[in-house]
Amino acid sequence: MSALKLRYCITVFLLFSGVALSQNFNWITPNKTYLKMFVSGDGINRVTRNEFTNSGINTSNIDPRTVKIYYKGTEIPVYFEGEQDGSFDANDYIDFYGQRNYGGLTTTYLASFGPTVFDYSTNEYNDLYSDTSVYWIGWDGSNGLRYTLSSYNAVTEYPLNYSFEKIHFEVDSVYSLGQTVNSNSDFRFFNNEKISGEGWYWRNLTAVNGYSVSRVFSLPLLNSLPANCTFRIFAYPNSRDTSFNEHKLVLTLNSTNITTLAKNDYERFDTSVTFQSSLFNSSQNTVTITYTPTFSNTNATPSLYFDLIELTYPKQFKFTNAHCRITLNSTDTSSAVFRVSGFNSSAPYSIYDVRNNIKITSISNEADTLFFTGKQNGDFEIYNQAITQRPFRSQARQVQNLAGTSNGADYIVIYNRLFESQAEQLRSYRQSRDNFRSFKAPIDDITDIFNYGMESPVAIRRFVKHVYDNWQLPKVGYIVLFGRGSLDPKNNRLTNSYYRNMLPVYGNPPSDGYFVNFNLNGFTYYHEAAVGRLPAYTQQEAQDMVNKIIAYENEPPQSWWKNFNMITGGPNRIEQIQYQTQSNELVNNYITPAPISGIAEKIYRNDSAGYITFNYADSIKNAINRGGLIVNFIGHAASQNWELGLEEPQTLSNGNRLPLVLSMTCFTGINADANFRSFGEKFVFTPNRGALGFLGTTGWSFSGAGNEINKHIFIGLSQDTIRRLGSLVQFANNRMVPDSSNFQVRNMINCYNLLGDPASKLLLPAGPEFVIGQTDYRITDQYPLVGETVTWKIFPKNYGLFVPNCPVRFEILKNGQQFRFKDTNIVNFKIYDTLSYTFTIDTLGNYSLKATIDYGNIYPNEDPSNNVIVLPLPLRNISYTPLKPINNSVIAEDSVEFVGLNPQVDLRRNSVKVILQVDTSASFTSLLLNYSNSSISGVANKVRYRIPLLDSNKVYYWRTNAIINGDSTGWSETNKFVYNPAIVQTSSKSVNNDSIVTLYPRLLGQFPANSYSGLYYTGSGFKLNNSAGSLEVKSFGSNGSEASYFIINQFSSYADGGQNTGLNIAKVRKLTGGIVDIKNFRMSTSVSSDSVLNFMNTFDTTHYVMIMMASFVPVSDSLKQTAKNKIRQFGAQLIDSVTRFDQFDSYAFIGYLGAQPQNTSEQFHRYSSNSVWTPSLANLNPVFLSTLGTIDFSIGPSHRWKYFSWNRTLPGGSSVNFDVTGIDIFGNSVPLYTNLSSNVFSNLDTVNSFVYPDLRLKANIEIDTLSGLESPEFKSLYFKYTPPAEIIPDNYSFIRSDSVVDEGAQVTVSVRNHNIGFVPAGTVVYKWTANAYNGLITLKQDTIYTPLMPDSSYLSQVTFNTQGLKNPQSTIDTLDINFEVSMLNNQNDYYPFNNFAFTDIVIYGDSTGPAIDVTYDGIKILNGDLIAAKPEILFRFFDESKLEYSIGDTTGIYIKLDGRRINYFNAGQQNPEITFTAVNDGNLKTSVLYKPELSAGTHLLQYYGTDKDGNRDTLIDNAYVSYDFAVRNLFNYPNPMQGDTYFTFDLFASEAPQSCLIKIFTVAGRHVRDVRGSARVGFNQIYWDGKDGDGETMANGIYLYKLILEGSGKTETSIQKLAILK
Questions:
Q1: Quick one: three-class SS letters along 1037-1076?
Q2: Cα distances (Å, whole numbers) of residue 55 to 117, 255, 367, 1598
Q3: How far apart are CA 440 and CA 432, in angstroms?
Q4: Distance between CA 359 and CA 353 in Å, rounded?
Q5: 451, 416, 445: which is closest to 132 by C-alpha?
Q6: Is 380 helix (H, G, I), strand (E, B) or coil?
Q7: Contact at 8 Å (CB) between 613 and 604?
Q8: Which of 6, 26, 568, 1173 would bridge 579 by S-S if both were Cys, CB 3.0 to 4.6 A apart?
Q9: Neighbour tally for 9: CB within 10 Å
């Protein structure tokens, strides 16, 4: 693994100006302006007012005394010149001491397979992320911290004139992952922490790289007095040997070997040695480190990582470039006088002790020597000029409030500001879609607040932990890291393409789990929140990923939600079987069983003899393209592929069918390599394809622990119904934590990282998701005949979880109302099922079929919007169907025209007779007309009939029938009309002048028996029914067979079970028999009798009273006389006998106020100890009146509604009102008007007839039960409306240009459409479709805006090409052609079931195979021929069929070179070597131009051409390529020649020569002729006519000829002889 390994350096302590490191995140005030300054070197920095104003900060309100500078969250001292006046003036300035960002003390851990423990620490010179420090200037509030001004003058001089200075040589250019004995078996270096030997190094010292490093430097201020100096190095062995101390480093300074250091095995070199300063030169010095390994194994490869050289030397106190730095390491804090030479007294000076925070203001000088007093432990920065060092960049900065505790979030996006727009889009989407408290935090704000502006991943961790611990509950659940990280953020390697650190990563291998693990002392990254990274490097990548997330989550339910692509690899059979066993365990335990009940598509690599499984790679790609919820790979891999299965995710074409990819293998989850984009990244950032999320490891994947994570992912998915990607990973990782003392487990937890939004939700629901599409059915006859048995099969799907039972209802709707239904169930519903319903339609009508999945909404959390399928069931009319006159219409003339639709059968091939009968009797026993016609034509048959009896009180009944080939189709429904010109002419309401129909039902024969209820016909109208009632009282006891009771019609009330003893009284309405009240009086107190009296006083003459006494009441009071007297008013004669209730007397009575005794019923029986206990009975059978009756009228369809009226008689307390209900096109009922009481001209013209083509009127005939005494009477209805057009194509008017054609031929088909309805058909749509093998194909759709008038027709025509319409699996195919007509602009059709017509054609396929023709540079070659290294290969494909070809046919027409298929496109881009052209010129269908660049040697070229019917032709050429420039086999033929000849030769070359010349000589050497020609690579022949240069025929004899070829700067010649013999 070549990737770098970075982590946050754990800082033990930091010494800087005596200031301790602070982690107070409130050190900065949110939304307040600061000046942020960037410093890259050590020294005093001077800041003027210009730095503020150039950053856009107004200094007029800044009190300089309050200015403060912060470093790492802590205020540091400054010197502010000119602050005393409280004004920040132009000449004022701030001095502060700044340092570069050093790496600092860094802990390194012992590489171990067990717990992670401390090994050593280093004080790193370089920081891993940035060498820049950040300082902050704030102002206001209290005064700032200042340097102490010192003018003290000591007496004692400092005894030395030098201090020790460090020289540090270090170059970070190569990274070591750390110590490993064997990188193929010892994987400890995949620890996420910094382990032994890990880090950036200067060079890997090897025999190849060289065994030494050196540096040349000068020391102009070297003190001449002898002193002890130090020589420090750091290095780490990268190999070992059996010999002891095999690693040796020789330290050399200026050719002097200072020492030789030796280490054994993997012991590190971290050593300082001393030497005398006399070894230094003041001018040029050379320091060299030489690695001299002493390995006993001669085959070993010694290797050692070398890091740094650090030297100390005595440096004089002297100015250089007007600056002197004196750093003293003494602990003596007393003051002394220091002298520094090289001082210019005329120049300004500044002296700062940056260790003791003192500015020294008192100096003296002698000549060029400066004297000042300072502490003997001081660190002095001394300037002999105006300070010019500035922060290299400054900016005004505000941060948002991230450290506050009032914030709250479920979902946080941490992002680089480059992706501001995309981060906001994602945050807003999560908030609106998931109702998350969402928050976005830019990385610069996080870095500034939580790491004081210094780049490091620890800032993110501190921020997330702060949020988790301090923000409002509930705690944050999801963390999105929006931006790619880098393992080489400083571009140390210089050659990196992706080094920019958009969002830092931690560790190497990197682990994003680090950011959500808050056990800061632990090394197993337990996920306290779900985390995922969107590895965007550009804005376009960021946008593409957000687009994919949103598009995925808005996909409608689809079958691929239940697909799982299970892929395994393995280089040998043992591993293949192992991986397949692991995969099968997941399939058998979690995928195929409930609750998921998914489909596992297994793509397993199976090698039996060292070769790769056939189509393994293609199968993987095709499976992913088809779609799967999860793609699971187990096998081997690298950072860029899955073995030999998939190398380039960008070649996928799965669109929004985005899986979660579980890549259970090594390295594919790398997300921060600075030199390339990894396999997993490409899956996620590639637009419009790839994956929703990718789980892979950034390092090694251990089979056992990796398999456990894999298993826990599927457990979370199946058993815990976890759907969010990050939650799945969190669940799996945290389940592994108890075993994390094992290195492999800990490594898997930390290194398996999610690329993707952790809140993205897999589309597989947590419950069932039933779906039935509008094409998920089959029907045995889509246009059945009346009486035909039809089977309807539906194919419901469950794209969610398994359910044991799902109710389904089949319904047949007639005119939108339920006509028939069947309830059934899907048992054990996994994913696909099939249900069927077999039925027969016995009458014509407007039918549709409806199936509802989860009928009754048993699963309320399931989305019901896609659970219903509704499809029309147009019947083929084989009867003579009535159309005109409309049922119940009024005829104003003495004749009537009957119109019926003819049977839809072929009149040319069948014997058809239509019959029409008219009678005044509904039984048709005295026919007025018995019409028949055996010579019908067209779509309708009309009969004009003179009404023989012009009587407005007659109902005329008419019906139709058809006899087809001797069989009757059955009589139609009986229609009715009445003759009444007066009712039409006397209409007083103005209406539009269109084809208005008047309905006038008033006679009994016009009302079907099932249309009225609760009514009877009087001869003039309908009144409410009377009915015999039943009132009965039994008085006895109150238990079992001795119970007492009331029976009121069908209602019973009992005194039973010891209840309701005493006196019971029922109040019943005399008119209707309705119960008003029933009361029980216990008669147990003195006031009981008064209660009886009070209740009896509520009765009037409209009530019956029913009284029964139920025994017994142990302690009772008597019924007082006042109450008895009241009861006597109701006709009671025996009430005075009722004296007690504590015995077993019985009393029953039925009467009414003012009743005579003969009109009542009454009994009383007294009980005595020696007598029998006898029940008392009372009963009456009065006549009751129904209070409500209804009449239903169904009217329609309509083109335009008008109005209606009705006639009625209303006695007092009665009413006849109407309810109007609209019936929409789906058969749903919608109340429009209720309780219409005005019976004159109720307008309906505002009702939209297209929305409600049918109306249901309901007359409510009602009597008030309190005030009504007599039934109202409904007499008639008067209704006006305009019926619609009736468009119908003539199924037998088809004209086909040909009925049998070859595929690819053009066909023209026409058919005639008629309107035989009531109004013009406005805008008409004519649609032609074909039932092709692969579904319904639209051939043409015409919209005709010219109205089609009643009794007129229109000829519609379609011309189409039959290419692609034949089933490729069959050589002969019958193509069904459908014609459908419909109307736009809110127009109804009277009979929509007959808007179809059908015909067919027969298509013959191509059974002749194609032909292939291939030329190389325009020449056909033989097997084994020479060709050019860069040939133009023209591959032409011929086929005799009439089908045309396009770029989509490249799958069957392709070239292979040396067994490798040449792709027309790579990663979506045109391959420049090969071009496919669709020609379609006669038999030449396509041409392919291929321009390869071939290597020398033999090449296999294979050409494949498959036509659209699967016929195939192949051509194989073995061609030879040579980069020589040579002629072979030069001959002429014939030889000897008589007249002419051909020169032939083979040319070995990479390309054709520029010139070809044959010179002919006599044997004496005289030049007689030049023959020029063109030559090509391979075989050549050049013609010569046998004549010399003058055109004369050559004489007999022997001649020489010389072939001269020139090309590519080369010349090739060859000489041969020829003979002329005539």
A1: ECCHHHEEEEEECCEEEEECCCCCCEEEEEEEECCCCCEE
A2: 48, 53, 43, 97
A3: 15
A4: 6
A5: 451
A6: strand
A7: yes
A8: 568
A9: 23
**Do 690 and 652 form a contact (C-beta atoms < 8 A)?**
yes
The C-alpha atoms of residue 257 and residue 260 are separated, in whole angstroms, by: 8
The DSSP bridge partners found for residue 1545 are: 1580
Is 727 in contact with 758 (CB distance < 8 Å)? yes
The CA-based dihedral angle spanning residues 1501, 1506, 1512, 1517, taken in that order and rounded to the nearest 10 degrees? -10
Chain position carrying tokens 């200026």: 254
Closest of 996, 1004, 1017 to residue 978, by C-alpha: 1004
Pairing of strands 1295-1296, 1411-1416: unpaired
Residue 593, exposed/middle/buried by CB under 10 A (0-12, 13-18, 19+)? middle
Pull the structure tokens for residue 170.
């270090």
In this prediction, the residues of the chain whose per-residue pLDDT falls under 70 are 1-23, 112-115, 183-186, 189, 608-615, 638-639, 739-740, 844, 876-877, 984-994, 1169-1171, 1407
CA distance 596 to 769: 11
> Hey, what are 94's tokens?
């701030």
Query: What CA–CA distance (Å, rounded) separates 734 from 742?
Result: 14
* Distance of alpha carbon 770 from alpha carbon 797, whole angstroms: 6
Give the whole-angstrom CA distance, residue 1487 versus residue 1447. Answer: 11
Q: Which of 658, 629, 627, 661 is nearest to 801 (CA)?
A: 629
Beta strands 956-964; 975-979: pairing state: antiparallel
Residue 452 CB neighbour total at 10 angstroms: 24
How far is residue 197's CA from residue 206's CA, in Å, rounded to a whole number?
Answer: 16
In terms of Cα–Cα distance, which of 874, 628, 774, 557 is closest to 1335? 774
Distance, CA of 1004 to CA of 895 (rounded, Å): 23
1039: its two tokens: 């238990």
CA distance 391 to 388: 10
pLDDT reported for residue 1171: 64
Number of other CB atoms surrounding residue 1219 within 10 Å: 17
Whether residue 1157 has a cis bond before it, omega within 30° of 0: no
Q: How far apart are CA 466 and CA 459, in angstroms?
A: 10
DSSP letter assigned to residue 1537: B
DSSP assignment of 1193-1239 equals EEE---SEEEEEEEEEE--TTEEEEEEEEEE-TTS-EEEEEEEE---
Name the helix (H) or strand (E) containing 715: helix 703-718
What residues have CB less than 8 Å from 1041, skipping those under 6 apart? none
Residue pair 357/292 in contact (Cβ under 8 Å)? The answer is no
Beta bridge pairs of residue 1048: 1031, 1051
Q: What are phi and psi of 711, to 5 degrees?
A: -65, -40
Encoded tokens for 72? 């790492």
Tokens 């067209």, residue located: 938
pLDDT at position 869 is 93
Neighbours of 126 (CB within 10 A): 20
* CA-atom Rg of the chain in angstroms: 52
- Supply φ then ψ for residue 1377, to 5 degrees: -115, 130
Rounded Cα gap, residues 1258 and 1245, in angstroms: 18
Closest by Cα among 1531, 1555, 1566, 1551 to 1426: 1551
Q: What is the DSSP string of 1138-1202?
A: ---SSS--EEEEEEETT--GGGSEEEEE---TTS----EEEEE--EEE-SEEEEEEEE---SEEE
Which residue, among 1597, 1592, 1593, 1602, has the nearest Cα to 1536 in the 3D structure? 1597
Nearest by Cα to 313 from 265, 278, 342, 286? 278
